[in-house]
Design goal:
The structure holds two protein chains of two kinds. By secondary structure, chain A is mainly β. Chain A has two helices and 14 strands, in the order αβββββββββββββαβ. In chain A, the strands form two sheets. In chain A, strands 2-3-4-5-7-8-9-10-11-12-13-14 form a twelve-stranded antiparallel β-barrel. A two-stranded antiparallel ribbon of chain A has the order 1-6. The two termini of chain B are 38 Å apart. The chains are: A mainly beta, B alpha+beta.
Chain lengths: 296, 181
């Protein structure tokens, strides 16, 4: 009888072992994959500056951004809300890695265009990569006529260029960190003392406080700022709110410009003396051609 | 008694040995779901479904990565993973169960029932559904569809998007198994 019971027990064991074996087969077969780490940041902008994120193939993003005047400009100006710099832009993702965009800012009547390319994407699994890296290059054309000498106002002298390598890591679901070494070239500067080539290092973070809300911070340290103007490093804090196809970013920053060469190099506000601009970015994404997001 | 025990043991060992040759497997099975709501219809496909059948025990195990679902709009995929199924915490959906009937020598398609445990978003539920079985030379195809009540799996749909996402989604499956080597 003892043996008989033993047999039944072994029989039962072999039965459960079987269903576990089937699962083991699936685990073994599924272990070979590499997975992309998605959603390091909510949007293509951290706050003022770009994040490593780009839109997926076939997405046209319409971006409207505002920076109001300084909140310390008093009640008569309604704490800066009477005056604003607006930038609107169309940004199109040709594929999951490449985005081209054009934008126009009311501040200094500036047009800008940029190319953004995701070079390295953070991955887990077989071919893991600990970080993401995105290349960013932009050109801006200042069309406002504020040149003291009119012969100075040539097309070439209105241009400036920005190059960045954005490097980020999503440490966990709630915390991501980004570094942004930046190089800016100005074709024309105000004074002979001012550098034509400028280097800066940006750092930024996103901390998610719920599924749809996150707190962001961003700081750009300028290594060789303009000498002729009292410029400050750009600093920004904000809240991202995600609602389906929209992302709202509410921002407090000492910069009025929303393009790289502007907020990194030409910020004059002192954040800690109350020269704070309230602003927002609103993005609306349209899927204009079919997404093939089979790339994992 | 020892003899009986030995015989039984041999029998079980034999079963295990036979099992090794009765497994059918796929890693590119297709599972899709369809949500019909007031504002929009959402369809998502997953062509990387793993599934294995044991024809001897009639047991079945299916597994897929939530992140492998593809949508018409790229943002839908992101929201699906980040906000609804939370695939960073619950990366896989799994099913383990049993097929009521496997007629290995019958090449005519027939209908049978599959029942077992479905696990989505960390929640396990007993389910059972009708399924079509088609057995051709060295190939076992299972197909069918069933409804999933989103709330059963503790997936919350905020009021803001309740007109965009259905409370019950239709899940369809088509799995072509081949002998597992």
């Amino acid at each position: 009888m003892k043996y008989f019971l033993l047999t039944i027990i072994i029989g039962l064991l072999s039965f459960t072992a079987n269903s576990q074996e089937l699962e083991a087969i699936l685990e073994k077969e599924s272990a070979n994959g590499t997975e992309l780490v998605l959603g390091s940041f909510n949007g293509t902008r951290l706050l003022n500056g770009h994040s490593i994120e780009t839109r997926k193939k076939g997405v046209l993003e319409f971006l409207i951004s505002h920076r109001f005047d300084r909140v310390n400009s008093g009640f008569d100006e309604f704490f800066g809300l009477d005056d604003s710099n607006i930038r609107f832009a169309f940004e199109y993702a040709f594929n999951d890695r490449l985005t081209l965009a054009v934008g126009r800012s009311s501040f200094e009547k500036t047009y800008d265009g940029y190319v953004k390319y995701r070079l390295i994407r953070q991955k887990t699994g077989k071919k893991a990569s600990p970080i993401s890296a995105t290349l960013f290059g932009s050109m801006t054309i200042k069309t406002i006529d504020d040149f003291e000498d009119e012969s100075d106002a040539t097309f070439g002298r209105r241009l400036s260029y920005t190059s960045q390598i954005l490097i980020a890591r999503k440490f966990n679901q709630n915390f991501s960190f980004q570094l942004a070494p930046t190089f800016i070239h100005f074709n024309r500067v105000n004074s002979p003392d001012d550098p034509h080539n400028m280097f800066a290092l940006g750092a930024g973070t996103r901390v998610k406080i719920s599924k749809r809300v996150s707190l962001n911070g961003e700081y750009y340290y300028n290594l060789n700022p303009f000498e002729s103007r009292d410029v400050k490093n750009s600093i920004a804090f904000g809240v991202d709110i995600e609602t389906g196809g929209h992302i709202f970013q509410l921002i407090f920053t000492n910069a009025v410009s929303m393009i790289e060469k502007g907020f990194i190099a030409e910020t004059t506000g002192d954040f800690f003396k109350g020269d704070i601009h309230f602003g927002f970015n609103i993005s609306r994404a349209f899927q204009v051609s079919k997404a093939i997001s089979n790339e994992q | 008694m020892i003899k009986l025990y030995t015989i039984c043991l041999c029998f079980f060992l034999a079963t295990v040995a036979v099992n090794a040759q009765t497994r059918y497997f796929t890693k590119d099975g297709h599972i899709s779901f369809y949500s019909h709501a007031l504002i929009e219809d959402i369809k998502a496909d997953n062509h990387q479904v793993l599934s294995v059948i044991d024809t001897e025990s009639r047991e079945l195990a299916i597994q897929l990565l939530m992140r492998s679902f593809t949508f018409k709009k790229a943002l839908m995929r992101e929201h699906f993973n980040e906000n609804y199924v939370e695939s960073h915490i619950y990366p896989k959906a799994k099913f383990t169960g049993r097929i009521a009937e496997i007629k290995l020598n019958d090449t005519n398609p027939y209908e049978t029932e599959i029942s077992g445990t479905l696990s989505i978003h960390g929640v396990e539920k007993e389910v059972s559904t009708k399924a079509q079985v088609r057995i051709e030379a060295d190939k076992i195809t299972l197909s069918g569809d069933f409804n999933v009540v989103v709330a059963d799996y503790n997936i919350k749909i905020p009021a803001l998007v309740r007109d965009n996402i259905a409370k019950i989604v239709k899940v369809s499956f088509e799995l072509h198994h081949k002998p597992y080597k």
